[in-house]
Structures are given as structure tokens and as C-alpha cells.
Design goal:
3-stranded mixed beta sheet; two-stranded antiparallel sheet; about 550 residues; disordered N terminus
């Protein structure tokens, strides 16, 4: 078997993967836009039960084709394992009714349909025309989505009350006079009258559809929604495995999360002492917030700071700890058009004409930013985090088929790598400044708290003693999060709603980091004096985003 980069001939297994990717693009124009595949930007997925069934049939056909596939090389071995793992778990989620009922505050069709417009170019009248055509199709898409929610409801599958209520509020914000669709029309004003009219009409149709969806959620779903936030341990096992691409002992991981939280709290106390002798962690945070050396005023300054730090990381790490090909040395930092809070990354298009982008969604009214909190996040989203990870996979077309380069994404792999990247930057000395180190530890504290809250609430494990033990309640989860997450109240509320409505995803960050570290340390132990960190990084990232159990087997054998 050979898999020399640059000389590998596509195989029969690659052909199966390519056909699967082509089918995904046909069935999901939204995914096509996300992948940067042209020709589908006027359309939206069929979100009805029939549309979901068509996607399921597509997955099952691919798995069937893989059953008879013979690997030609080591790349094929990983492709077969990764596709069976991903598609098999997606089918298990579909069979459990989790796709049809999908409704939460962050990652359900309600958000996905709206989010796709952020990725569409708007430089020319023609590009705006395409965007307007897609806007006009939002009513059909959301009506189909409502049909799936009703279908799930008929079998007793409805998201919890807290998620439904929050999503009603999201619909109301989108269609407000100063909401997203009004701002979208305003941003088209410099173009032709015909273009502005098309965008205005499309935005009005889309806004009306979101208003109608909000009414469906409030009037039809909310009365049937369960009061309990917990999904139960059986559903959680499936969700956890889906987001990690690995099976973990949930009870052991729950206790490990509590131990991590205590360790991180102790480390933060040590850093607080560096900031001012005798200071508590909270006092140290107040000192940092008041320090003008860490303060930025306005979103323009924020974007410029993000760009400078991202570019600086690329220049510093290239050719030392990482191989960074030229197309990947460009990352674009932007302020997001939404105001939900948080920072996120979108990958480059297949041809790199659209670069990888780091987005900051600034909450309404927030104009002051503390860099000490956020430098670690720039490394998380940029380099060596998501940008290097995602863009490198896109770049390796001589080695990886399109499914592995563009479509396959595993949260535990991706978010675990991003946290691993933050830790690596700390280990390499880039976060030695006490403020920046406190920011990194604060982020680690949040991620460890997620593990405890998410697993504890959904699986029904006993709450930690620090919040009174016994059964978990919303108030206990809020207390734990407040003690260990240095976020504004609105951000904490959103975070907690996210954990309660998207089981298994938030812990995949910290658990994914744990598994990445275990794989690296075992590789180093096996190689001994021959271990080279740069080579480990290149070989691991060249595999693309795959389930962490598949990654372990591919790296360690």
C-alpha cells in the first residue's frame, strides 16, 4: 500500500466518497454554500419529513456501497472507517427522531437557514440578485421545517419548553424593525434600484416566514413541550458518541470534569497572585478589566486587533511547529452581522477564492472589549486552531477525497483540536502574560463547567457538593456556571440554554482536547527520542476531521 502525497491516484473508495459528496450538495444547497461549491446559492434544502428521508436514503446507499469496498491503500482504510462511523451515527440520530425534532438556540434549521446569508458574496448586483432569490425561498423552507416539527410532535418528540421559548424570541428579534432582515436591506442600498427592490421583497418574504414560524412554535409546539431540560442517558449516549466520534465512560468523564474544574480554579488563583499579591480571582479580573493596556474601543479596533493577532500567529508558527501552505496563510477577520455573542470560524471555499474567516458576533450595545480574555480565542478560531485544521484539510486535495476535505466534520475532533491549540500556545509561551494566561484559564474553566453541567443534567447524575448535591436543577446549573464562567449574565444565560438544548455538543470541546492529548502522548511514548511534534501535527491534520476513535486507530495503529 502507498499513499504518497502528490502521486496518489483516486481509488474506487474515493469514487464512493465523491458520489456521496455530490449527493449531499444536490440535497443540501445550504451545505453547498458552506462548502463553497457554486451553482446552488439560489436554493434551500427540503426541510420536510420527505426531505429528511431522502437524505437518510442517501446515507444508507453510501454505507451499502462501502460494505463491498476493498481499500487500495491506507487512505482508503481511514475513509471507509470514517464514513461508516459518521453515516452510521447520523442514521442512528435520524432513526431516534432527533433530526425531525431539531430545535435549539444555536444549531437547528431555524438558525442554519438564516446563517447561510452570511456566507454569500454581496459585492455586485448579480450577487445580490442571487441572494434575493434565496430569500424568496425562505417561506417554503420554513414551512417544510414546521412540517417536520409537527411530524416529530406526533410521535412525542418535542424540544423542551426552554428551547421553544428562546427560539420564539429569536424569531421576533430577526423580524424586528431593527433586526437582521431590515439591516440586510439597508446594506444593499448602494446598488441599483432593481437590486434594492428585489432584496427588499425577498427580505419581507423571509421576515414574514420567520414571524409565522415563531407563531407555530408558540401556539403549537410550546403547549406540547416537556418542562424537563434533560434528554435522558440513552439519548445522551448517542449524542455524545455522535459529537465525539468516540465512546467514553460518561460517569468517569463526569467526575474527571469536576476534577478538572477544581484544578483550573487552583491555577487561576496562582495567576491572580501574580496580577496582585493577595488578590482573589475576581479581584484580579476586575484589575484586568480596568487596565487600559487590555482595552479596545469599538468594533473597528476589535477587528483590526483580531487580524493582527491572527496574522502574527501564522507568521510565528509557520515552518516551526506547523507546515502552513501559502493559501492557508491568509485568514480574514470580520465582525458578524448578527448580535448573538461569541466568535466562530467558517472555512475557505474549495478553491480558496473565499478565505477562511473568523467572525465575532458582538452583542447589541457592547462597544468595549478586553483583549486579555480573547487572545486565546483568536488562537482557538484561527491558527493553530480551526483555520489551520479546516483549511489544511481543504488544501490536501492530492491526498483526500472531497468528502474528507469538505464534508466530514466531527465536533470532538475539531473543537478538541482548537482547545489543544490553545493549550499548545500556552505551553509554547505565547500566553505567559498574566492577563492572557488568566484569559486562557477562564476559557478552560468554562469548558470544564460545560462537561459537568451537560453530562450531569442530561444523564441525571448527582450534582456536585458545591451546588448542594442531589438532583440537578436549572438553578444549580446556573450557580455552577456563574462561579466558573467569567461571562456577562446574558452570555451565561445563552450558554446554559445551549447546553440544555444541544446535548453532548458543548462537552465535546474539553473531552476532545483530553482525547487529542492522550493520542499525542501515546504517540510520543511509542516514538521515544524520534518523536517530532511538527510531524505529529502534520500527519494528524492531513487526515482531515474524523471521529476520535478513528483518529486514534489511524495515528497509533
Amino acid at each position: 500500500m502507498t499513499d504518497t502525497p502528490g502521486s496518489r491516484t483516486p481509488t474506487a473508495v474515493d469514487a464512493i466518497a465523491e458520489e456521496h459528496f455530490a449527493g449531499t450538495v444536490r440535497l443540501s444547497p445550504l451545505a453547498a454554500t458552506y462548502f463553497g461549491v457554486p451553482g446552488h446559492d439560489e436554493d434551500i434544502d427540503d426541510l420536510s419529513p420527505a426531505g429528511l428521508a431522502a437524505v437518510s436514503e442517501h446515507r444508507r446507499a453510501t454505507v451499502s456501497a462501502l460494505e463491498g469496498a476493498v481499500p487500495a491503500d491506507a487512505v482508503d482504510v481511514v475513509t471507509i472507517a470514517a464514513m461508516k462511523e459518521r453515516l452510521g451515527l447520523a442514521e442512528a440520530m435520524y432513526d431516534a427522531g432527533l433530526e425531525a425534532k431539531s430545535l435549539n438556540v444555536l444549531a437547528s434549521p431555524l438558525q442554519t437557514v438564516r446563517d447561510t446569508f452570511d456566507l454569500m458574496p454581496t459585492d455586485t448586483d448579480e450577487q445580490w440578485r442571487v441572494l434575493a432569490a434565496r430569500l424568496a425561498k425562505v417561506p417554503t423552507a420554513l414551512a417544510q421545517y414546521a412540517e417536520s416539527l409537527r411530524f416529530a410532535k406526533s410521535s412525542g418528540q418535542v424540544s423542551p419548553q426552554r428551547q421553544v421559548t428562546a427560539c420564539v424570541a429569536q424569531c421576533e428579534r430577526l423580524v424586528a424593525p431593527d433586526g437582521y432582515f431590515a439591516a440586510l436591506v439597508a446594506s444593499a442600498q448602494s446598488h441599483s434600484d432593481a437590486t434594492v427592490a428585489a432584496v427588499r421583497d425577498g427580505a419581507a418574504s423571509a421576515a414574514s416566514a420567520y414571524a409565522t414560524l415563531g407563531e407555530v412554535l408558540r401556539d403549537e409546539l410550546l403547549p406540547a413541550a416537556p418542562e424537563s431540560d434533560a434528554c435522558g442517558i440513552d439519548t445522551y449516549r448517542l449524542s455524545s458518541q455522535y459529537f465525539l466520534g468516540a465512546v467514553v465512560d460518561l460517569e468517569e468523564t463526569y467526575h474527571w470534569g469536576q476534577e478538572e474544574l477544581a484544578r483550573i480554579s487552583a491555577d487561576m488563583a496562582v495567576v491572580a497572585e501574580r496580577i496582585r499579591p493577595g488578590a482573589t480571582v475576581q479581584e484580579a479580573i476586575e484589575i484586568l478589566d480596568a487596565d487600559p493596556a487590555y482595552r479596545l474601543e469599538g468594533t473597528d479596533a476589535l477587528r483590526e486587533w483580531m487580524q493582527e493577532r491572527a496574522d502574527g500567529a501564522i507568521a510565528s508558527l509557520a515552518d516551526t511547529h506547523f507546515d502552513i501552505p501559502d493559501p492557508i496563510r491568509t485568514i480574514e477577520c470580520r465582525i458578524a452581522p448578527t448580535q448573538t455573542g461569541g466568535i466562530y470560524y467558517t472555512g475557505p471555499s474549495d478553491d480558496f477564492s473565499r478565505p477562511g474567516r473568523m467572525w465575532w458576533s458582538v452583542p447589541q450595545g457592547v462597544t468595549t472589549f478586553g483583549t486579555w480574555r480573547e487572545l486565546t480565542t483568536v488562537h482557538h478560531e484561527g491558527v493553530p486552531g480551526h483555520h489551520l485544521q479546516v483549511a489544511q484539510a481543504v488544501y490536501r486535495r492530492e491526498l483526500l477525497n472531497t468528502w474528507r476535505r469538505l464534508e466530514c466534520w466531527v465536533s470532538g475532533h475539531g473543537e478538541g483540536w482548537a482547545l489543544y491549540s490553545e493549550r499548545l500556545m500556552a505551553d509554547l509561551g505565547y500566553l505567559d502574560d498574566p492577563g492572557n494566561r488568566m484569559g486562557w484559564l477562564g476559557g478552560q474553566s468554562l469548558r470544564a463547567a460545560r462537561v459537568v453541567i451537560d453530562i450531569g443534567v442530561h444523564c441525571g447524575f448527582e450534582a456536585p457538593a458545591e451546588v448542594g448535591g442531589g438532583a440537578w436543577t436549572y438553578d444549580k446549573a446556573w450557580t455552577l456556571l456563574t462561579r466558573h464562567a467569567g461571562l456577562e449574565e446574558s452570555s451565561r444565560r445563552f450558554e446554559l440554554d445551549r447546553y440544555l438544548g444541544w446535548p453532548g455538543q458543548a462537552p465535546s470541546y474539553k473531552i476532545g482536547e483530553r482525547l487529542w492529548l492522550q493520542i499525542r502522548d501515546e504517540a510520543a511514548q511509542r516514538a521515544g527520542a524520534d518523536f517530532d511534534l511538527k510531524t505529529f501535527h502534520k500527519n494528524a491534520l492531513d487526515l482531515g476531521s474524523i471521529g476520535l476513535d478513528v483518529l486514534r486507530e489511524a495515528v497509533l495503529g
